[in-house]
Design a protein that fits this description.
Elements: H1 6-13, H2 17-24, H3 32-45, H4 51-58, E1 63-68, H5 76-89, E2 93-98, H6 103-115, E3 120-124, H7 128-139, E4 143-146, E5 157-160, H8 162-175, E6 181-184, H9 190-206, E7 216-217, H10 224-237, E8 242-245, H11 248-260, E9 270-272, H12 279-282, E10 289-291, H13 294-309, E11 317-319, E12 322-324
Parallel strand pairs: 1-2, 1-3, 3-4, 4-5, 5-11, 6-7, 6-8, 8-9
Antiparallel strand pairs: 10-12
Helix pairs in contact: 1-2, 1-3, 2-3, 5-13, 6-7, 8-9, 10-11
Length: 335
Amino acid sequence: MSSISIKDIAKAAGVSHSTVSRALRNSPLVNAETTAQIQALAREMGYSPSAVARSLVTRRTQTVGLVVTHISDPFGDQVVDGVEDLATRAGYSVFLSSSHGNPEREVAVVETFHRRRVDGVIVLASRVGRLYGERLRELNVPIVLINNEAAGSLGSSVSVDDEQGARLATRHLLELGHQRIGYIGSSLRPPTSLRRWSGYEAEMVRAGLSPDASLAVVPNCQRDIQSGQAGLGHLLAEGVTAVFCYNDRTAIGVLLEAHERGIRLPQELSVVGYDDIEPSWYVTPPLTTVHQPRFEMGRLAMQMLLDLLEGRAVSAQVLPGKLIVRGSTAPVSKP
């Protein structure tokens, strides 16, 4: 069955093409009665407006490009849901692509989206703002970054306060009586890792404990779980009773290594992660962690993009983290 065109509707209604076009756009140049009749006829005939033709008129494609690190990344699922929830309500479609953690591929994907004439781009867990900020500006397409590594490098960004979240995690362990608290960072995302280390260090100082560089380790590993496994051995030699990890996957690596070594959790070692990804709910013991409001971050990024498209001013949004206490932390064991 061939598609119905404006020409077909005009012929059936006995009016000009331009009258039908205006009526379908609710133009005030066509009286209300004629507009209602033409719109009703269009529905009866099964007319579906051409997205391509509409984009030529509006200069909008009603599409958004979303770049994630990996399609399977457990951090990104709720962010994607949040973006799509608001995008759908606003009449936008979302194109998804992955950067595989490679900043050059990240900017290449953004440029590909631009060539495909998306109206705007959202980039998750981005290093592109730190490395290619000027290149992004030259594209002249609205871009919003989520958890951009270089905080404040672009005004159009949404993130969670890394230092505040790290302080919550460290304070929880201190309140449980731990003083030898280790930190396992990330060699893959140095700026974010450093901010979380800064929050950890600030909270230790607030508690009257001198910073001890031997309690911080940043393993040179390509996967977070491997970082957790490698980092625990070093920290055990330093006599830690608790570990704060860069993210939940690092913490899961610590849990795996602790089980391998026969260390009882949390009786002999408390562990805190960061992100509150779904696997953290199901490991043994369930992981105490810092929750990032990922769905809200996705919705907020999409709203920021819509504001940019309408010419409204936006500013960087920094959300607070929230401590979620589960079974991986307990009061320090008395000797």
